Amino acid sequence: MSVVDVLARLVAEPTVSNRPLTELAAYMATRAEDQGFRVERFESEPGKVNVVASAGPVGTDGLILSGHMDVVPVEGQPWTSDPFVLTERGDNLLGRGSSDMKAFLAATVEGLERVDVSKLSRELVLVWTHDEEIGCVGSRILVEQLAREGRPLPKQCWIGEPTSMQVLRMHPGHVAIRVVTTGMSAHSSKPDLGKSALKEMTRVLSILEGIEEEAKGRRRLEEYLDRPYVTMNAAEIHGGSAVNMVPDRMELTFGYRPLPGDDPMEVLDTVRERVSELDASVELIRATQAMYTEDGTPLQGLLCPHACTPKLGAASFATDGGNFEQLGISSLIFGPGSIDVAHAPDEYVPRASLVQAVDIVEQVVRSRCS
Ligand SMILES: [Zn+2]
Fold it and tell me: What pLDDT does residue 318 have?
């Protein structure tokens, strides 16, 4: 089998987030077992599996290779070929997930065929996750399970997301919160008998706008991020029931992106504090962790010679690396394919980058673990 065949096999599994990915997880687990890895399957719920495979002496000085097995949906996208059939077109290989990020999975499967993992001197761990695309859900559950087990893991992790072969060492997070204002219903002919939850929400919105303006003034990491401050978005608002009723409930969802190294709950705490005088409640919906890896890790030294530029960068998108950080693991993001085509119709990976990635996997694993 060539790496292109492996990629075709992986793309043929329509592992869109929220659908079962048992088949693909089984394939990745079996390939690892055949290569001599000890494989553990962590089931989060029926149909949802994270796969952890390890080889070599257990320890913290080895290496983790990680990627997500799920892909984004194709509905409504004008594909010119079947998104779940890998299709060659010129120098490119088209298919959903070809770039994000089954290319890296395939390169790893193929690259490790060339390494005798029974002879490793440092531990090599493979971590394949589910539901990354809907907020790094699978890795969050896995990290909790691994933390409970207390198993030592290598502290260096390579996440092969598509970066057009640049090494990225950080990304912002994303926090979604819900603000609910409450009032009292009344007929609109006698509005003074009620209290408008909508008017209360306009006060909340102006407070949020104030917080957003202040955030723009706190710039950090300017050499890495094109928006080096916490960006915010009042996204959805629901409430009210009829034009002749004073609304008694309004609900707002609000998102913000903590910078790498930030306490992700800081903005939430500020919102809570500033709306505390209002009839408003604030709750966390979901937090996707930011990631921040120091400059100069050993893995950086191994990846940079293969990178398109020696300059390290930041990802605009979130990865499982934010969750891995909770286990004290430092990740670098580096892989074939481009994020610019990743979620688009006719997603592709250049064949040459895929083939190159196989060699890089082999060399990095040999350098770190043999
Ligand atoms: Zn991805």
Answer: 92
